[in-house]
Design brief:
By secondary structure, this protein is of the alpha+beta class. The protein has 2 domains: about 220 residues, no CATH class; about 170 residues, no CATH class. It has 16 helices and 16 strands. The strands form 6 sheets. The protein has a 5-stranded antiparallel sheet with strand order 15-14-13-12-16. Strands 6-5-7 form a 3-stranded antiparallel sheet. β14 and β15 form a beta hairpin. α1 packs across α4, α2 packs antiparallel against α3 and α4 crosses α8. The longest helix is centred in the first third of the chain and has 27 residues. The model has no long low-confidence stretch (mean pLDDT about 85).
């Protein structure tokens, strides 16, 4: 069967990243970095990438892939055991044999399944109006992980935060999957009586409780909260990770686009199902975090249980002179889920968030002296709004928050906010 275009697109968007250990490329980095543990030469890594590409396009199984890799790697001296040095000098030289069947299978299936998962997520985002739910489906493996079995039968909206961490595959060799279903199917499954019979499935629309454990990456020192039942490094949704990568790419493209042309592109972006989905997920996560804090949980614990994804979404382009006044080199303005969802009182509808470009074009703009934050004041549909921007990584501005004030733009709260600012426009 020909691979869906989304699958191939995900795989081909990855850049070659030769690394000594699987711990060197971590979590969501796999969405944009192609690596094989221990393969430190780019020319060898390129052969793996080319062969998996062909496997996706032509529908190969593992045995065909293995034969292809033997043909490609034998002339390079990489088919069989060899000693590989750590380029960073942190670990000792180790023996690497990429021809070992188990190791080669891990490389093949990890890349094939993550690419298919990213493609499925992309399709789910495009078709969720007709198929708004995902159903966690039982693995076809003979030996099933108990935690994964407990997730079977879970039915949640496509954009539910649960899928940010539990969208399969959920570990090395995991063969779990999800199926996208209609609202009618959702109702039908939930109406089926529960059974205690061995092997039976109970359906629920309640997300399973997420218990995490701390994993420390011994190569980088990075600490991550990984849900119990998911292998470290697999706790991210490859489709969402791809979205972050595409968000950064899109921001770079908008940087290079003249303002008049960029406005049209941004208008299409912020009037899309993708943007509305992004807002919905952010506000759902914000509500979840607020509920956790209401239970008395510390912010550090909330960040572990319900972390922000910080996926950048381009919502505006600064005029070049304003970018210069703000002290940033790149004019594209991004919005993240944390900015949208952090305050439930500020969970505005999509027509408000899609007005960022209009606010920058026609609003009053001030710059705070002490930290360079930008405040944009404008009425939208008769309501007074203040948009707050600040420098973010990438030498650009990002939206930090937006709030509405009943006092109007001349009220005391806004005057206090602007006390330490200079008018820019």
């Amino acid at each position: 069967m020909a691979a869906p275009p989304e699958v191939l697109s995900f795989f081909r968007d990855k850049s070659l990243t030769p690394k000594f250990s699987w711990l060197d490329v971590w979590g969501e980095e796999h969405a944009h970095a192609f690596t094989v543990a221990g393969v430190t030469e780019a020319k060898v890594l390129a052969q793996f990438q080319a062969s998996i590409d062909k496997a996706i396009v032509e529908g190969w199984g593992f045995e065909h892939f293995r034969e292809e890799m033997q043909k490609r790697l034998s002339p390079l001296g990489w088919w069989g055991p060899r000693q590989v040095e750590d380029p960073e000098g942190r670990w000792r030289t180790k023996a690497v044999d990429v021809s070992m069947p188990r190791r080669l299978q891990t490389t093949f299936w990890a890349n094939m399944r993550s690419a298919r998962a990213a493609g499925q997520w992309d399709r789910a985002q495009r078709t969720k109006r007709a198929l708004p739910y995902l159903l966690y489906v039982r693995s076809v493996s003979e030996r099933k992980r108990p935690e994964h079995v407990r997730w079977v039968g879970t039915i949640l909206p496509v954009d539910h935060p649960f899928w940010s961490s539990h969208f399969p595959p959920n570990g090395w060799g995991c063969k779990c999957s999800v199926r996208q279903i209609t609202a009618a199917e959702h109702d039908d499954y939930l109406s089926r009586p529960a059974s205690d019979a061995p092997g039976s499935i109970s359906y629920t629309d309640e997300p399973p409780p997420t218990v995490t454990r701390t994993f420390v990456n011994r190569r980088t020192g990075e600490r991550a909260e990984v849900p119990v039942g998911i292998d470290p490094g697999w706790q991210t949704n490859p489709g969402i990770g791809r979205g972050r990568t595409l968000g950064r790419i899109l921001a770079d493209q908008v940087d290079a686009t003249p303002l008049d042309l960029a406005r049209g592109r941004i208008e299409r972006l912020t009037d899309s199902e993708g943007f509305r989905s992004f807002l919905w997920r952010a506000q759902e996560q914000g509500a979840r975090r607020a509920a956790l804090m209401a239970e008395g949980k510390a912010i550090a614990e909330v960040d572990q249980i319900a972390p922000w994804s910080h996926t950048p979404f381009v919502v505006a382009r600064l005029p070049d002179e304003l970018a210069g006044a703000a002290g940033v080199a790149r004019p594209a303005v991004t919005l993240t889920d944390a900015a949208v969802g952090h305050a439930p009182a500020h969970h505005y509808p999509d027509w408000v968030w899609s007005s960022v470009q209009a606010m920058l074009d026609a609003g009053a703009i001030h710059r705070r002296r002490r930290d360079g934050r930008i405040f944009v004041l404008k009425e939208i549909a008769g309501r007074a709004f203040v948009l707050v921007l600040a420098p973010v990584p990438g030498d650009r501005l990002g939206v930090i928050t937006m709030f509405s004030t009943r006092e109007g733009l001349d009220g005391a709260y806004v005057r206090r906010t602007l006390a330490d600012t200079d008018r820019v426009k």
